[in-house]
Amino acid sequence: MAHNTSESSGGDDTNFNYSWKIFTSWDYLIGNPETADNKFASNTTNIKEALADEKETQKVTNFRVTLLFRLLANFLIISILAGSGYLIYYVARRSENFLRDGMNKHNWWERNEVNIVMSLLTTFGPMFFEAISHLENYHPRISLCWQLGRVFALYAGNLYSFLIAIVDQVRFTMAEEEEMKVNLTIWQSHMYNRSTAENSTGSPFRVDPADVPRGPCWETLVGQEFVRMLITDTLTFYIVLLINDFFRAVVIRFLNHCWCWDLEYSFPCYSLFDLSGNLLTLIFNQGMICMGTLYAPCLPALNLIRLQTSMYIQAWGVMCCNIPHTRIFKASYSSNLYMAILLVIIFISTLPVIFTVVSMPPSFDCGPFSGKQHMYDVIPESLEMDFPIWLGKALSYISNPGLVLPFLLFLILTIYYLYVTSKTYKQANLDLKKKLKAQSEENRSRSKLEAKKMDEYLEKAKHMAATEQQDKQGNNNLSLKARDSSKSSGQSYLPPPPHIYSGGRGSGLKYSRRPTYTRPPAPRSHLMHGQLPGFPPY
């Protein structure tokens, strides 16, 4: 995000937009034909996007009707978000009742309904959002950003509703563990205590592990829920891909010739490949895996298998059943939008894990943290037992609150200073762009004024040339009339030599085109005509 922000200029590039895209978009250092094809396709998409953007800005809509539809759309979307969160919380609390009764007493749907409901909501919720977004009549790029934000809110709300319900189940399991601790103490007191009248040596007690009561491990419970969610999402993805893409394409292909309307270009048409939605699903899935890895260490391996299989299956679906999206707009001109979503997903994923490590006690008889008050107690214990003493002292000094708090304060002040500095630089950049724009407008107006003056001068010159042409035409007509009158009077008329003025006195005097021949100003020679210097005349 910082790299993208440093590359962006912070101003508008609306001046000569098409000229910049046409003449400066190509990279002349490309030497690979495939890279050249990709660059050509990218430049084509950018130019199409600019043309569509220009077309969208010229639309005229009724503001009141648009505002009414946008309020209705936001109300429907908020209702869907609230309803999905409440539905997940309701089925999770219902699953807690099933847990108290024993999962073996219930059927398959009741054991897995939480994961199935979450998968169905995350699959069909974005489709409802896409249909409702047509009421808002936003710009395609703004509509896409709103769509991503709403889908992200749906995913995050569903995940946190699921986590809140899981926390309630964990608390119920921890209460069972406390009861199990008491029962285990009573069992051990009756199992190992015995009195003898004299000293004797006997064989140790042999206890079958199946006879020892074991408490419910809440880490295993949470890990199983995450594994179920991953498997349910995978199966739901495959089923939706087969039904919504493959069977839909088959029906459209074979029924299009005998249907009342064109199925390919109208409803239902072929399925569109939503690149931004698939990318958001991938980011959310990655955050869920990071969250569940603490409770189920095999979860990344299962997710890797899922990604490998889904990549090939979705590639087959894209090549055979999907068509490109009609909207050519990108989600953003830079990748900061997806980077911001990924940053929020990382925060959402790490927050429950940190809460578990810091505040919740681990199970007393299972897992690597059994017997500890908190999970983070493993760190100082490992430093004390497995590392040198000086390293433990150094880390204890570094983790001292008297040193950590001033360091955090220094970091906050440094970040604030850098933020103010970058804001100042960006404002200076905007001011310079405004000055350049004002100067270009001034030069443009000056060039327009000079062009106007030149046009006026040319019009004046044309007018003067036309006037002179009319005067010349009138003089020619007068000379022709004079010639005809002289012929009619019987007088001979000889034209004047070319070096003599052809007109009389006044404004009609015209000069001959041939210059007058005169002798150069030099003394006359004593030689005779044809005599060469140094030779006699005869």
From TrEMBL:
<dbReference type="GO" id="GO:0060005">
    <property type="term" value="P:vestibular reflex"/>
</dbReference>
<protein>
    <recommendedName>
        <fullName>Transmembrane channel-like protein</fullName>
    </recommendedName>
</protein>
<dbReference type="Pfam" id="PF07810">
    <property type="entry name" value="TMC"/>
</dbReference>
<feature type="transmembrane region" description="Helical">
    <location>
        <begin position="235"/>
        <end position="255"/>
    </location>
</feature>
<keyword id="KW-0812">Transmembrane</keyword>
<dbReference type="GO" id="GO:0005886">
    <property type="term" value="C:plasma membrane"/>
</dbReference>
<keyword id="KW-1133">Transmembrane helix</keyword>
<dbReference type="InterPro" id="IPR038900">
    <property type="entry name" value="TMC"/>
</dbReference>
<feature type="transmembrane region" description="Helical">
    <location>
        <begin position="337"/>
        <end position="358"/>
    </location>
</feature>
<feature type="domain" description="TMC">
    <location>
        <begin position="217"/>
        <end position="332"/>
    </location>
</feature>
<feature type="transmembrane region" description="Helical">
    <location>
        <begin position="275"/>
        <end position="296"/>
    </location>
</feature>
<keyword id="KW-0472">Membrane</keyword>
<dbReference type="GO" id="GO:0008381">
    <property type="term" value="F:mechanosensitive monoatomic ion channel activity"/>
</dbReference>
<feature type="region of interest" description="Disordered">
    <location>
        <begin position="464"/>
        <end position="538"/>
    </location>
</feature>
<feature type="transmembrane region" description="Helical">
    <location>
        <begin position="113"/>
        <end position="132"/>
    </location>
</feature>
<dbReference type="GO" id="GO:0050910">
    <property type="term" value="P:detection of mechanical stimulus involved in sensory perception of sound"/>
</dbReference>
<feature type="transmembrane region" description="Helical">
    <location>
        <begin position="71"/>
        <end position="92"/>
    </location>
</feature>
<feature type="transmembrane region" description="Helical">
    <location>
        <begin position="152"/>
        <end position="170"/>
    </location>
</feature>
<dbReference type="InterPro" id="IPR012496">
    <property type="entry name" value="TMC_dom"/>
</dbReference>
<comment type="similarity">
    <text>Belongs to the TMC family.</text>
</comment>
<feature type="transmembrane region" description="Helical">
    <location>
        <begin position="403"/>
        <end position="420"/>
    </location>
</feature>
